[in-house]
Write a structure and sequence with these properties.
Blueprint: E1 8-17, E2 26-43, E3 51-55, H1 69-92, H2 96-100, E4 109-116, H3 127-142, H4 149-164, H5 172-177, E5 180-185, E6 190-194, E7 200-206, H6 212-217, H7 225-244, H8 247-253, H9 260-263, H10 270-279, E8 284-287, E9 294-298, H11 301-317, E10 322-328, E11 335-337
Parallel strand pairs: 3-4
Antiparallel strand pairs: 1-2, 1-11, 2-4, 2-5, 5-6, 7-9, 7-10, 8-9
Helix pairs in contact: 1-3, 1-4, 3-4, 7-8, 10-11
The structure holds L-homoserine.
């Protein structure tokens, strides 16, 4: 429990959703880029708003909590606060609020959040997830970690719903848990943390905008059985490869026969980029989340840097402005610095 009015700092990592074959179920967090946030709680007076969002960057994202992804996630947390206090009080046979010195009802809490987005919105590396997940992990820390990580994933999914129209947790789960995660089910939520061998991640973010809602609306609603068989073979292969540290199996399984053929049309030079990155030694890769970023996994840092060179060369060649990152898998998820 952190006293009222005291700011805490939060680092919320970018995430790569889908991991090529695992649409809406697989994802991993990376060490760079990440969003910086600060949050504090104050006593809420009268009917003033329960959440204040302060943008510290130039993206001009909405500050109305109901229209801001961090706001939507925090509102979901506050909605369950009273119930949670009651539950804990019964379990521990004490008044949880009195023991923890926190307000005995959500009606008396106000959160103030400062957001400095270093992950560009619409880049395909979980920008909205970082804001939603960062906000609820920070708020939970302030109130003495009343909620579990699974609860926080559920709350943060409200931010994803706002951003893309659908609740999906393949960015939120790795952002909160760190590492590689499998979302086995959303309703009820079941997140499985997966181990992974050391992997280097190269990401290129071509400076075009692909809205997740648009990238979802173009997808086919039906798949052929033979495509589904290939896809679930790859998902199982990827999970097995990660668990057995079998790099070749990981590489072979990074194949998507359902989503990528449709979405790759939105990303200039996609097929060629994938080809040259693999020639440079990458295990494999594909669209990060709904794009436009593309990621590649490599066994060594040297290969990851060669892959970055290929990406730069290709996009410089066609005159497409872009940013690249060479990073590793983030194993901690959102970090709080009190
Ligand atoms: N699984 C989601 C999608 C991730 O591909 O639409 C969005 O970042």
């Amino acid at each position: 429990m952190v006293p009222a009015n005291q700011w805490i700092k939060i680092k919320a990592p970018a995430t790569v959703a889908n991991m090529v074959c695992g649409f809406d179920i697989l994802g991993f967090a990376v060490n760079n880029p990440y969003d910086e946030m600060e949050i504090r709680w104050m006593e809420r007076l009268g009917d003033e708003p329960s959440i204040t969002i302060i943008n510290m960057d130039d993206y001009q994202l909405p500050t109305d909590p109901e229209k801001n992804v961090a706001g939507a996630a925090l509102l979901a947390l506050l909605e369950e606060y009273d119930e949670k206090l009651k539950e804990i009080s019964i379990e521990k046979n004490i008044l949880a609020a009195a023991a923890g010195n926190i307000p005995n009802t959500a009606a008396k809490i106000k959160f103030e959040v400062k957001i400095n987005k270093l992950i560009k919105p619409g880049s395909g590396v979980g920008s909205s997830a970082a804001s939603s997940a960062g906000a609820v992990v920070g708020a939970n820390y302030l109130i003495g970690n009343l909620f579990t990580k699974d609860d926080l994933v559920r709350f943060a999914m409200n931010g994803e719903k706002l951003a893309s129209g659908v609740k999906h947790a393949d960015n939120i789960a790795p952002c909160i848990f760190g590492g590689v995660t499998l979302v086995r089910s959303i309703f009820p939520l079941e997140v499985v943390a997966l181990p992974s061998p050391q992997l280097f991640v190269t990401i290129v973010h071509p400076q075009i905008e692909v809205r997740t809602a648009d990238a979802r609306s173009i997808l086919r609603q039906k798949v052929l059985l033979k495509e589904a068989i290939k896809q679930w073979g790859n998902i199982a292969g990827l999970v097995a490869g990660l668990m057995k540290s079998d790099y070749d199996l990981i590489g072979r399984s990074l194949e998507d026969v359902i989503i990528e053929p449709v979405r790759s049309i939105l990303i200039p030079g996609f097929d060629e980029l994938k080809k040259v990155c693999k020639q440079a030694g990458a295990l494999g890769g594909g669209i990060s989340g709904s794009g436009p970023s593309i990621f590649m996994l490599s066994k060594t840092k040297e290969i990851a840097i060669s892959v970055e060179k290929e990406m730069n060369q290709l996009y410089d060649g066609i005159g497409l402005p872009h940013h690249t990152y060479v990073t590793t898998i983030n194993q901690t998820g959102v970090e709080v610095e009190a």
